[in-house]
Model the fold of this input.
Amino acid sequence: MSAPRKSEAWSGIGTGWAITSTLVGGMVTLGGLGYLLDVVLSTGTVFTAIGFVLGAASGIYIVYLRYGRGGE
Done:
């Protein structure tokens, strides 16, 4: 059995960073929109919390659609 080539050995790291950035990006985007709603409506941190939860859920869903569906 031969050793994996350098490009094959590092290919998983790129996928990991793509998944991480998708999850963090969803939380930051929807959390930021929730924060803006909180500032405009003066509601404390209600929409910020909702935005972070929805951002995490949408990030997980996008990662599932992109990487987790299995044999296509």
